[in-house]
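## Example pair
The file below holds two records. Each record gives the amino-acid sequence first, followed by its structure token line.
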Amino acid sequence: MRRARGGLALLLLSLLAGGAGAAELRAGAVLGADADGFLRAEAPRPFRFPEDHGVKPAYRTQWWYLTAHFRDEAGQPYGVQFTLFRQGLRAPGREAPRASPLATEALWMAHLALTTPEGHAAEERFARDALALAGVHAAPFRLWLDDWILEGDGSAADHPFPGRLQATLRAGGKRYRLTLALGAARGPVLQGEEGLSLKSRETGSASYYYSYTRLPATLTLQAEGRTVAAEGLGWFDREWSSGALAPDQVGWDWLALHLASGHDLMLFRLRGADGEVAGVQEGTLVAPDGSQRRLAPDAYRFTPVPGARWTGPHGGAWPVRWRLNVPALGVDDVLSAVRPDQHNDLTVPYWEGMVCFEGDRDSCGYLEMTGYEPPTDGARASVE
């Protein structure tokens, strides 16, 4: 929304029924609701760094997204996803602030997912925008919710990286502590039209979106006295928006891919109920020298392989093999999930995980999919 990520943030944060202050969220930010005084992303704008790494309270929804894929010395795959969402409950200046230290103008939600050779697990956490329970500092760069912390080392004045992610989560009956060290970044890359990323053809249904597409990464994973080290690459997305998905859009597919050639590729497509593209599909290609170009829809094909689907716990049929064809790069291969079950079974379930080319296991990335199964009962209840 990834990121398409705008859709994920809107879908997740507008359907929550529990957690901190969700009654306010349910009343003010239902999917498709008016922006209620928030600014919308309607035209390209100049980006300012490091300021734009921080919170944009004038916009309703924003998110910071990190994915990273790794191999250990034995060639075994590992993957990490960390996401922080902020949802504004009311636009700045719409109401007088309340005196309580627990009063909040926004809610925070974080997702953390880990893929190992043994399995896949995901956790989510929520917090009010109060008492420093969660937040983002632009400079020095730091974002957190509880003890999930992503921060820069301060050596790059205008950019978040180098830096590191530190977090813990439970997977397969084990408690993991992970440290993800991130090197100097290539970027920022402005997605869409100079950073304006359309989600539908409706005015304001867009986000401001930029990425750091190729981050050298090292994973240190500790559990039950055992330490695993792995090397790989990370991808960081930053978006903010006040728009919503169009009524005919039911989900999306988003890909961030590191090619062994040194190219980076971002693709997303929004789908209608018939499974076809609804509204917008976008592509960005970043060359090894850091130059970028926007890909027209006819410059590539990214389609599910028929019959290659994993059935999730709620009955959804998730495509886990995709054919990618990019003639300009000489690419025509099948991307497959390193595990078919990289499904985040959270308040609103979605699939996000590590994928690699079957013909080139050194070309890997992250795929995110939504809308392949009905909302959970809890999500339905929250909008009734």
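Second record, same layout:
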Amino acid sequence: MSKQPVTVIGLGPMGHAMASTFLDNGHAVTVWNRTASKADDLVAKGATLAASPAEAVSANELVILSLTDYEAMYAILDDATGAFSGRTLVNLSSDTPDKARAAAAWASEYGAQYLTGGVQASPVGIGDPKTFTFYSGPKAVFEANKSVLEVLTGTDYRGEDQGLAALYYQLQLDVFWTTALAWLHALAVANANGISAQDMLPYVSGTVAGMPDFFGFYTARIDEGEHPGDVDRLPMGVASVDHVVRTAIDAGVDATLPAAVLKVFERGIAEGHANDSFTSLFEIMKKPSA
């Protein structure tokens, strides 16, 4: 039984890895990229290089989009909408939930079925079933294409709302980039004190490894809207973060990041949470600052 042919549009590191993985798993693959030379090794493996986005869309019923953002999708596919009818577009590009919903509506106007995706893997993780991708959109469309999508990663279907996969994806990035930036800041302070990144690795890794238990303890309380100061209190956090800021300043390192964190803690105190846990900042963050 032949495997479903697939089109991949966008051959950055992620799209290239996806096209290569489909080829390795016996799928006929049509590719298109603005810089055609990025497809040379894929063509050598058996991929077909389309001459235009419209030709790429026309080639197969299932079309995977791996682009920088949704604006890139519109720019590339604006002249290809005549080929949308009967196609399923799976957009694995990053963007906001609202833009995902608008893109799905746009695609449906031209007769395409549409799924939003959020890939929780780096290019090297494509093809590894232990990685996964968030999906949202019509469940029947997801189920019809699930087996092909699972060639790339595991799948986590979030629901019919086209914005959900994008939302879950951005929520993960919220945690990832904030954590990664905190790591770099800590390394900058360490470096200013003659401590290498390698020296810090086991200690930072240990801190991060303990975060699931930390999150787990507080999660039920947050969902219940309870922030008792029985384990910690916000003033303790203010003092702690202030020490982080001063340590950075004393080391001659930019303190912008921890200073921004300190402002959030101080706002919590100002809004009457001095006797509450630091998790009371959740209530502060639910609304924009003045």
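Notes on the second record: The chain has two domains: 6-160, 168-285. The two ends are 62 Å apart (CA to CA).
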